[in-house]
Amino acid sequence: MAAKGRSLLYRILASLYLKEASPDTLLILSSKEVVEALDGLGVDTGKFSPPADDVGQKRLFDELAEEYAALFILPGGVSPYESVRLKGLLCQEPEWKVREFYKRFGVVMRDGSSMFSDHIGMELDFMSYLADKEAAAWAAKDEEDAGRWEETQREFFREHIDKWVKGFIDELDRCAFHPFYREVSVFTRKLMEIESED
């Protein structure tokens, strides 16, 4: 998969974990470019389609907000943090290492951010950033720079995402009730499988 396409998929997936779905989210998920990319992964984009009527849409967004909170915010949900999944507590060694990795490439968490740097959405967004850099290098016909960005993605994926995301997805599969989040889980699994193979 080309770097530009990977960047787009990572950015979309990151947004689905960083905040609850909004009308803008569903608009992006229904765009032609995104639908084609997700169809190519075997994701059922119909699960991301909003109802046509206003009442149905309001109900859908209420349901998605409740499910997002239950899954990723409230105690007893599916922890979206590498540290919790690997060490049992927030802000442990994996988070420090992720933060240092980001700093190597000039990425710094905003002051006052309510998320730690090892949140799945942050890690996926960083992968999007790295794939963007690779795509820009290919566009500039700089194969050496593109190769460095590609290797950086492999390193970050191997040292962080690949160590914990499978267990996260397995738990999300068991806990998600709404078809929307069940399909987010499918989307995540498919992309991670492709990245693991690469």
C-alpha geometry:
globular
Sheet of most strands: none
Question: N-to-C SSE series?
Answer: HHHHHHHHH
Number of helices: 9
Give the amount of beta strand, in percent.
Answer: under 5%
Low-pLDDT parts are none
Query: In total, how many beta strands?
Result: 0
Helix-and-strand structural type: mainly alpha
Distance between the termini: 9 Å
Walk me through what this model shows.
This protein is mainly α. Helix content is 72%, strand content 0%. The protein contains 9 helices and no strands. It has helices at 3-18, 23-29, 32-41, 54-73, 82-87, 93-104, 120-139, 143-175, 179-197. Helix 1 (3-18) packs antiparallel against helix 9 (179-197) and helix 8 packs antiparallel against helix 9 (179-197). The longest helix is centred in the last third of the chain and has 33 residues, at 143-175. It is globular, with a radius of gyration of 17 Å.
Question: Summarize this, please?
Answer:
With 198 residues, the protein is mainly alpha-helical.
